[in-house]
Design goal:
This protein is an alpha/beta fold and 357 residues long. Helices cover 43% and strands 14% of the residues. It contains 14 helices and twelve strands. A five-stranded mixed sheet has the order 7-8-6-2-12. Strands 3-4-1-5 form a four-stranded mixed sheet.
Length: 357
């Protein structure tokens, strides 16, 4: 068990990540790639990703073992700002840190290039970043909108819990693998460990590829982060991804928070899906329960539920259960439809928002 110890200042500095973390998702997906469990959630993705890889998995396997420790420098905090920012930070890792963290891996299983990396050899670092980028392009980038939609849905649930109950409510709303027993958050974990936040706060990072138990950094002196698994739909990946990109993606979609329809978009949307269903899609906005949706649109709860179900089947809305209620949020496709097809803004806001805002 992992015990995360909070003080009053830590509760004030509790934060939710704004978006998926590109490096965490890449590294954790590598674990999912090599296992045979959770076929319903990851099986189709696993099969498609393996067909798109060209030896990257074999190259990275000694650095990212199937179980246990992997180096913290692979998941820098800047990964929450996008792939480019994360890789820039990884490339700037000091030779001393490379040596310290790689020395914790079983030396007998390390190929020469990783041992050279532990000595700060620049060509080995370039080889690592090239392999990670190639793996990311093949296994993560084609599915990024689905990852973002699932994590946005989880953030909507946590945001509602925060509004209803403050930091205590947010911590109490986390999945069953985490139990809030003030002032300690107990987390199912492979080893017995205590994490003293010491006034630094905690970043909660929902993850698509995290499975079963949450993950945190090995080094307790690094900025505290707790990566935890989101709830999955039965079919979380598309049946066929787009062609493998020639270069790494340069921008990342920003979180969805009830985008306003573009001029003329509302009228066009009404023609496409009907006036009531268009109103339902706009009513979902940044997230709402079925009863709230019914009030916003002016229909019965049963009608709101039925319309939300149709939009969910069309890939425009995501629905998560929170206790006895359900919470609806827009998918990236649903938000784009509301914008009239206008692309999401590519400007990058701060990496996280305070949980107490």
């Amino acid at each position: 068990m992992l015990r995360v110890h909070f003080g009053e200042l830590d509760l004030a500095r509790l934060r939710m990540a704004l978006r998926p973390d590109a490096l965490w998702e890449t590294v954790l997906s590598f674990h999912r790639l090599r296992e045979h469990r959770a076929a319903t959630v990851y099986g189709e993705w696993r099969s498609l990703a393996r067909n798109r890889l060209n030896g990257e998995a074999r190259l990275l396997a000694p650095l990212i073992p199937s179980r246990g420790y992997f180096p913290d420098f692979l998941t820098p905090a800047e990964g929450g700002m996008g792939w480019d920012s994360g890789m820039e930070s990884l490339r700037a890792t000091s030779p001393a840190r490379l040596h310290t963290e790689i020395s914790r891996l079983p030396a007998a299983r390390l190929p020469g290039w990783i041992r050279d990396l532990g000595q700060g050899e620049r060509r080995s670092l370039d080889r690592l970043t090239s392999a990670l980028t190639s793996y990311h392009q093949a296994a993560i980038a084609p599915y990024w909108p689905r990852l973002q939609a699932r994590i946005e849905a989880d953030r909507a649930v946590r945001g509602r819990a925060l509004l209803d109950g403050g930091a205590d409510g947010l911590l109490a709303s986390l999945p069953p693998t985490m139990r809030w027993r003030p002032p300690v958050l107990e987390v199912d974990y492979p080893v017995d460990r205590d994490l003293e936040l010491g006034g630094r706060g905690l970043l909660l990072q929902p993850s698509f590829f995290c499975r079963r138990t949450p993950v945190t950094l090995y080094d307790p002196d690094l900025r505290p982060v707790l990566v935890y698994p989101v709830e999955h739909a039965p079919r979380p990946v598309p049946p066929s991804p787009p062609a493998r990109p020639a270069t790494a993606p340069r921008t990342w979609p920003v979180p969805i928070s009830g985008p306003a329809p573009a001029p003329g978009a509302a009228q066009s949307l009404s023609k496409l899906v009907g006036q009531t269903r268009s109103a339902v899609l706009q009513g979902v906005g940044g997230g709402c329960t079925t009863s709230e949706l019914a009030r916003r649109v002016g229909v019965s709860i049963a009608s709101a539920s039925q319309h939300a179900s149709v939009l969910r089947d069309a890939g425009l809305v995501l629905t998560l259960r929170r206790g006895s209620a359900v919470l609806h949020t827009l998918t990236p496709l649903g938000a784009a439809l509301l914008r009239g097809g206008a692309p999401a803004q590519s400007s990058m806001p701060e990496r996280s928002t305070p949980a107490t805002m």
